[in-house]
Design goal:
Number of domains of chain A: 2
Shape of chain A: elongated
Number of strands of chain B: 0
Distance between the termini of chain B: 35 Å
Largest sheet of chain B: none
Number of helices of chain A: 11
Strand order of the largest sheet of chain A: 5-6-7-3-8-9
Shape of chain B: globular
CATH superfamily of the largest domain in chain A: P-loop containing nucleotide triphosphate hydrolases
Radius of gyration of chain B: 24 Å
Order of helices and strands of chain A: EEEHEHEHHHEHEHEEHEHEEHEH
Helix content of chain A: 25-40%
Number of domains of chain B: 1
Number of helices of chain B: 15
Distance between the termini of chain A: 31 Å
Structural class of chain A: alpha/beta
Structural class of chain B: mainly alpha
Order of helices and strands of chain B: HHHHHHHHHHHHHHH
CATH topology of the largest domain in chain A: Rossmann fold
Strand content of chain B: under 5%
Radius of gyration of chain A: 24 Å
Oligomer: heterodimer
CATH class of the largest domain in chain A: Alpha Beta
């Protein structure tokens, strides 16, 4: 499913802090130009994984390659190619947006003249062009988050890593940020790695996602693929007229496991596609089918399925 | 991200950065960190406040020293290095300038170091900083260098103000050998304040909170520089008591022990070193009894004064290096998160 050649690969990546396993045998591939989501509850090992990708933490075992480089050996060159927006990104409050970004471009050895143009460009791109000479201390959280993205973009990264970018900002801010991510991918072909514990917020932006629980990779793929792997995916909403005991009729169809009342309709759970059989049963009983729709395994179901399994296990690493 | 860049060199540079070719060498990152930190220090309110505070104290002591020197200078024109007395004489119970610097100088070191690392943590700028193409040790190295630079600048400013005022009051400038001694004094003062900088950086690495670091450093400063003498005296009297009809030997024993206990404090080492460097007539860093003052009516060359203060200087430098090394090691072993 990953497009083109992978830009990030990990093989059996493991990180232990003493007895705790923060990341356990992670094997993953992210394609060039993909928007990839790292999803999981807090403490699932997302940030630890990101730190290993950047060479900021040494893996206990396993292999990582980022854009063909080994972050543990070639940390500086990896860091020059990867733009990282940490969880709750911070800036020097006494400095202006421009001054903060200039420090970053200096550290990336970008010549001043080139840097000035770039700083204006990336601040315009994130919609902070007007605030360029304002002290960052006056910025709202959403503005800081966008400034974080601008800061990461100033080095023209081939990979952009956003750690929990949607935490602590309002829904409108989230929408703007995700639109920005989308735009970066389409306009500049940047590979984006996005970590979040909020599946709802990021799912429409991600091509593929990996679900992390307690340091282990639970599932990886598109939303559809994740949904397809759920056991409970033959669920239908049914509405009928002219039948005296619809519940018995519906439940009597072969393959139907249960029939319950939900949201003014009958919700039928089955082990295979029973749509025609449901229709036939209702007509045979002398009634008419006024509504029949399949309930897709939605995000709630995915979330519940993968994440709540996890909460039954002790969380191993505090965030 | 298609900025119109006509400059070919810039285009090339951009190419190199985006593709991060092996040709780009990310060396000397500490200089960038140091440059930014130095600019922050120099533009900060604390820099101005401390320079003003120390300069005022220095002016007070030089002012009070200048009067007696002027009176005495009439008949003592043969005395070498009259100018240097400005820094060492303390009439009217006002401490001499070099003593003032020993007491107030540490504040400079503490001010530029106490939030070096923990402020980066509390502002959450550290993860962003370490994810740039620099080595981690370059962060702490750059900060130490920047702090030392700010201290050097602050002390140079203070000495220029104080020395200039002294020259004006005295109507007399320093001779070239005075200048050499003043520069030696300046270097020792910078290293001495650097010791306090290294200490406060170490605390800023260990403790999460800048307030804790500042208070700890200030507590140590108070004990070592202000109360150190009192404590040393009490301990010395307890171990080597001086009865009413004490012998000379007993008094000397007490004084020597007192001095050795004081030497635990870097302030005492600094005082001994600078005392010798600023006073060519002073021939010992040990206990001085009135009988020995002027016993050898000669003055020392700067070289000899340096030899006399040698071990004090070595200890100050060694402690500074040890404190910084500790900060360096602890910082490198810390996780980025935490």
């Amino acid at each position: 499913m990953s497009s083109a050649e992978p830009i990030i690969t990990t093989e059996g990546l493991t990180k232990r802090y003493g007895d705790r396993v923060a990341v356990d045998q992670l094997t993953l591939e992210v394609g060039r130009g993909e928007v990839f989501g790292l999803l999981g509850p807090n403490g699932a090992g997302k940030t630890t994984t990101i730190l290993m990708l950047l060479g900021l933490t040494e893996p206990t075992s396993g292999r990582v390659r980022v854009d063909g480089l080994d972050p543990t050996k070639d940390s500086l060159r990896v860091k020059a190619r990867v733009g990282y927006v940490p969880d709750e990104v911070g800036f020097y409050d006494d400095l202006t947006a421009r001054e903060n970004l200039r420090y970053t471009t200096d550290l990336n050895r970008i010549p001043r003249r080139e840097a000035n143009a770039r700083i204006e460009e990336v601040l315009d791109a994130v919609g902070l062009g007007d605030a360029i000479d304002r002290r960052v201390g006056t910025f709202s959280r959403g503005m800081r988050q966008r400034l974080g993205v601008a800061d990461a973009l100033a080095k023209r990264p081939s990979i952009l890593i956003l750690d929990e970018p949607t935490v602590n900002i309002d829904p409108e801010g989230v929408r703007e940020l995700l639109a920005l991510v989308e735009q970066l991918r389409t306009d500049h072909g940047v590979t984006v790695l996005l970590s979040s514990h909020l599946l709802h917020q990021v799912q429409q932006s991600c091509d593929r996602m990996a679900i992390f629980v307690a340091g282990k990779l639970r599932a990886c793929g598109t939303v559809e693929e994740l949904a397809a792997n759920l056991p409970d995916r033959w669920t239908f909403d049914v509405d009928v007229t002219g039948v005296e005991a619809p519940e018995q009729v519906l439940a009597g169809v072969a393959g139907v496991a249960s029939c319950t009342r939900a949201e003014g309709r009958w919700r039928v759970h089955a082990d295979h596609d029973v749509r025609t059989a449901l229709h036939d049963a209702v007509v045979d009983a002398g009634g008419r089918l006024t509504h029949l729709s399949r309930v897709a395994a939605d995000l709630d179901a995915i979330y519940h399925e993968y994440f709540t399994q996890a909460s039954e296990q002790p969380e191993e690493v505090p965030a | 991200m298609t900025a119109v860049v006509t400059d070919t060199a810039a285009v090339q540079e951009r190419e190199e950065v985006t593709t991060a070719s092996p040709r780009v060498r990310y060396r000397g990152g500490w200089r960038i960190v140091a440059g930014k930190e130095f600019a922050d220090h120099v533009r900060s309110v604390r820099f101005v406040l401390l320079v003003v505070l120390i300069a005022l104290a220095g002016l007070a002591s030089v002012h009070s020293a200048a009067g007696p020197i002027r009176d005495a200078a009439e008949d003592a024109s043969t005395t070498p290095s009259i100018f240097l007395y400005l820094f060492t004489l303390s009439p009217d119970r006002v401490p001499a300038f070099h003593e003032f610097l020993g007491i107030l100088g540490p504040l400079l070191g503490i001010a530029f170091g106490f939030d070096a690392i923990n402020a980066e943590r509390s502002q959450r700028t550290l993860p962003r900083l370490v994810s740039q193409p620099i080595h981690r040790d370059e962060i702490i190295n750059g900060k130490f260098v920047a702090g030392l630079g700010a201290i050097a600048l602050a002390l140079a400013a203070v000495m220029a103000i104080v020395g200039g005022y002294g020259a004006f009051r005295l109507g007399l400038g320093p001779t070239s050998s005075d200048m050499a001694r003043i520069i030696a004094f300046y270097v020792v003062a910078v290293v001495y304040v650097g010791l306090w900088l290294a200490m406060s950086i170490l605390f800023s690495v260990i403790s999460r909170r800048a307030a804790t670091t500042a208070l700890t450093a200030i507590a140590i400063w108070l004990v070592l520089t202000l109360f150190g003498g009192l404590i040393a005296g009490v301990i010395a009297d307890a171990i080597r008591p001086v009865p009413d009809e004490a012998t000379v030997a007993q008094v000397l024993d007490n004084a020597r022990l007192d001095l050795n206990i004081r030497r635990v404090s870097p302030d005492q080492l600094y005082r001994e070193a600078t005392g010798v460097l600023l006073n060519p007539a002073r021939q010992t860093t040990g206990v001085i009894i009135t009988e020995t003052v002027g016993a050898l009516p000669s003055t020392l060359a700067l070289r000899d004064s340096l030899l006399l203060a040698w071990w004090q200087l070595v200890v100050i430098v060694a402690v500074t290096i040890a404190l910084f090394a500790a900060a360096y090691i602890v910082f490198l072993r810390q996780e980025v998160r935490a």
